[in-house]
Structures are given as structure tokens and as C-alpha cells.
């Protein structure tokens, strides 16, 4: 396998060299790219219909960290984990810290949950949380977010992600302007309690669970809220949270231009929030999105903070760990393709309105087989050349089933 890999890597290195591109430099950038794994993606889920556990799913925060550590050993690209409270309330902090150190992982973000009522919770979120008409319910939701910050602080996280299921199902149900204002005020109260070196990510979604209106349906609303909230509030783009055919790459470019792109949730989507494997059905779109991210990073005029990358996918049919390995591979492949775009010639073509040339430059990068670069990045970071093959050869799922049982079910969406 190694000999085969070396042969292909030599070929791509030579090919890129002829275009004045240094393959080693691109490999280094792939090695540096890390994408967080959410605790809720380690089990099957993503459906409100039947759920078919894959077996050996993690039953505790410790087992979730163990699974992410496993992924990180296989591909060297998943060095952080996102928590969801109350599913992942940390108990034994020193033991968790030690486990994280051993697995070379960090906690990147904490996600609040005001989309479900918890046992013994005094007020219901049936009619919303941060936008609720009653002050006491809003306060409860604000306090939950502040508690999340507290849990995150214990484990060194510095990001709070707020996704709200708040909205309405019928015309007239909610006063749009007041609902927006109550949300903005609640976010401001949470922001006030946030340490100054933390970031608040505000995620939008056009529909679901509500089907008439969502209080934060689009990037424009997230952007307005982040501006009103403060400089450490940023917009989070989740690939699945757009109506079909939305030009997501343009949204990414706009947010970079405004310096408000804070976070990214990767997944694959054909209809809505399908949460399938990243890049599975629309690889060209994923490449175009990375093209904007890379372009923004290279442009001195762009003043955007570091973007927090995470996979946000959870579905019913694949082994979740194999799915995450596939997702990371798609992400890195698209990133590598964006890194080899001939930007100077593209800029010329754009300035000269040479439409065909501009498009051909992008197509050329997209159609170049960069897989040997990604495999080499895995190898250089101590991972496996083919992480999925290694996972299967080591019979890891079988071992997890033996240890955790066939019917263990992880918390998820
Ligand atoms: C619900 O749509 C959702 O998938 C959002 O994308 C959040 O990021 C995630 O759940 C976790 O709350
Ligand atoms: Mn998301
Ligand atoms: Mn979602």
C-alpha cells in the first residue's frame, strides 16, 4: 500500500510542481486543518422515525471521548470534541482532563439545548425559549446557556453555540418583531455572562421544528443578531440549514467580508437538514465553499476571526465512525482542491470578464486527483493511509460491541 501511495504521491507532486505549486506546503496545510466531532454524531440517529443502533455506541461522555480519540488516531484530523448539555454534563473533571490529554483532544464548543424539556424543568419550551412571551421561561433558557458556559469553562472550551428551535407554526401565532427583540435581549443577557475570551456562535435554520416561521431563519438574521450582541458574537453556517439551491458559497463570502463568519457545521444535504455524509452528493458545492474560505484567508483585506469547524451529521444507515471518517476525508479533499486553485489567473479572468477561463480554472482544480496529498497528510500526522480500511481491518466496531453491547444507544438528534 505504501509503495502504491508513494508512486501516486510522486506523480501529483510532479504535476503540481509544473504549476509552480509545492506539494509539501499543501500537505502541511492539510495536516494543520482540524475539524471538531460533535458528541451526538457518534451514535445513529437523525430521525424521528425508527432508530437502528449500530451496536457499541458510546454510553457516557468518557466513551464519547474514547471514540473521538480513536478517530483522531486514525486520521490525525479530529482533535476536538463538541459537547451538548445536558447530554454531556461533565462529572469527574480531573479524570476527564487526563483522558483528553492522553487522547490529545480538546473540547472546542458547548452547545445549549432549549429544544427539549428536561425532567424537573419548571417551565416548558413548547412555545419557545429565548423568545418566549413569559419572562420566567426566558430566564430559565438564559440560565441554561449560562450554565453551559460554566460546564465549558471547567474543561477549557471557549465557544458557546446557540441553535434555537424557536418559531411558530401558524400565521398570527407570533408577533414577528417582538419575538425577534425578545431573542436579541435574551442573547444579550447570555453574552454579558460570557468571559471576554469566549465566542458566541449564532446558528440559523430556515425551518424545522417549526414550519411557518423560525426566529433565526437565515444568515441575515444571525448577522443582525451578532452585530447587536457584540464583537464576540459570530454567525454559524450549517450546510444543511438552507433551502434547496441556496448559494452557500456566496453567503460564506459575504460573512467573511463582514468579518462575522465564526463557525461551520459540515454535513450533506439534498432537501433540508438531512445531516448526511459531508460531500456525499454535492462535492462541487463543497469545493466552491472551500474556495471562498481559502480565498478569504489569503486576502489581507479580510478581517475575520479563526473559523471553528465541526461536523454536524447524524443518521441511521452507516456505522457512525465510518461516516465521520468519510466526512473528514471529503472535507480535507475539498480543502486540498481549493488550495491548488490558480488564484492569480482566476483574478485576471474575473477582471477581464473571461467567464469561460474563470470557470475552467475552478474546474481544473476540482478535477485534479488530490487524494494522495490527503493520504500523505494522514501518514505524516501518524494516522493510517486509509483510515476506513484500518478501522475495518482492526475490527473496531466488533470490539466496541463486545465491550458496550449490541443495543447501547448514544444520545443524539
Ligand atoms: C438541529 O437542526 C441541529 O442539527 C442544529 O444543526 C444544531 O447545530 C444541532 O442540531 C445540535 O443542536
Ligand atoms: Mn448544526
Ligand atoms: Mn441541523
UniProtKB/TrEMBL annotation:
UniProt KW keywords: Isomerase, Manganese, Metal-binding
Molecular-function GO term, any one: isomerase activity
One Pfam family, short name: AP_endonuc_2
UniProt KW Transport keyword: no
SUPFAM superfamilies according to UniProt: Xylose isomerase-like
Protein origin, superkingdom: Bacteria
Domain Xylose isomerase-like TIM barrel as annotated: residue spans: 90-274
Name recorded for this polypeptide: L-rhamnose catabolism isomerase
